[in-house]
Design a protein that fits this description.
Layout (H helix, E strand, L loop, with lengths): L7 E4 L5 H12 L3 E6 L15 H10 L3 E6 L5 H15 L4 E4 L25 H29 L2 E6 L11 H21 L4 E7 L6 H5 L12 H13 L10 E3 H8 L16 E2 L1
Organism: Kribbella flavida (strain DSM 17836 / JCM 10339 / NBRC 14399)
Protein name: Short-chain dehydrogenase/reductase SDR
InterPro entries: NAD(P)-bd_dom_sf, Sc_DH/Rdtase_CS, SDR_fam
């Protein structure tokens, strides 16, 4: 029996990529995982990489968990509320929320000649709006709707998938500022949640072999990269840790968590990013 048997998780933006990997990592440990995304199994593709919430849910179940796919566009607050309410109504609890859904990446495949952009003033303002609307705001809204159940339980974990772009000046203004906001959100949420036994963390993956990255593999050094499922194993380890509150409000890094908790990637490797398991 997995370490998360009986636990209920909600992973947003899980049709593919990191979100899907997180759902699978939780499924490995026996969790019930509600996965959201805009792509239904029989609907139009929302990106040129395939994937749907039902496909992810089926794979979660095949790994030993219970996967439930829910089509949701998280720019719609009412729909987000309905998803959270459904989880609680059907399961009676909500132990883990992983805010992974994000926006603003569309320029990588929608025909935008982004390689000609040279400075934030040459980028469309709509990219900022996507990063903050589909990303930062969606993380906040989902957490707002999930927190009351966790507070009433006296336990729970909120994970915001973030990036070390928050610490860099060359990651693009929109992206860097949005990820910095995500991290600050976690710190402030953790302050409010701590006395209720609920933790909130920001998770920094390394270079992840998502569908988009593999499509452009010739431009990356993948020698120390991580599979999406490795990120899921990091989240699963945090969720199973009875002392996870010690990380609350912090940034945690997937590779460092692998070293601390002793899990490996799907190929048996342990990606080796430097630094401590968390930073203040």
């Amino acid at each position: 029996m997995g370490t998360l048997a009986g636990r209920v998780a909600l992973v947003t933006g899980a049709s593919r990529g990191v979100g899907k990997g997180i759902a699978l990592g939780l499924g490995e440990q026996g969790a019930t995982v509600y996965v959201t995304g805009r792509a239904a199994a029989d609907g139009p593709a929302t990106a040129p990489f395939g994937g749907s919430v039902q496909q992810t849910a089926d794979e979660v179940t095949a790994l030993g968990g219970r996967g439930i796919g829910v089509v949701c566009d998280h720019v719609d607050d009412a729909r987000t509320r309905q998803v959270v309410e459904r989880v609680v109504a059907e399961s009676g609890r909500l132990d883990l929320v992983v805010n992974n859904v994000w926006g603003g990446y569309e320029h990588f495949w929608d025909g935008t000649e982004f390689w000609q952009e040279a400075g934030f003033w040459t980028e469309p303002i709509s990219r900022w709006d996507s990063m903050f609307g589909t990303g930062v705001r969606a993380h906040y809204v989902t957490s707002v709707f999930a927190a009351p159940t966790m507070v009433a339980q006296g336990s729970g974990l909120i994970v915001n998938v973030s990036s070390d772009a928050a610490e860099k000046v060359d990651a693009g203004v929109s992206y860097g500022v949005a990820k910095s906001a995500t991290d600050r959100m976690v710190a402030c949420m953790a302050h409010d949640l701590r006395t209720h036994g609920v933790a909130a963390v920001s998770l920094y993956p390394g270079l992840v072999r998502t569908e988009a990255v593999l499509r452009a593999a010739e431009f990356f050094d993948l020698s120390d990269s991580e599979s999406p499922q490795f990120i899921g194993r990091a989240v699963a380890a945090l969720a199973a840790d009875p002392d996870v509150l010690r990380y609350s409000g912090q940034v945690v890094r997937s590779a460092a968590l692998g070293r601390e908790y002793g899990f490996t990637d799907v190929d048996g490797r342990r990606p080796g990013m430097g630094g401590p398991a968390y930073t203040g």
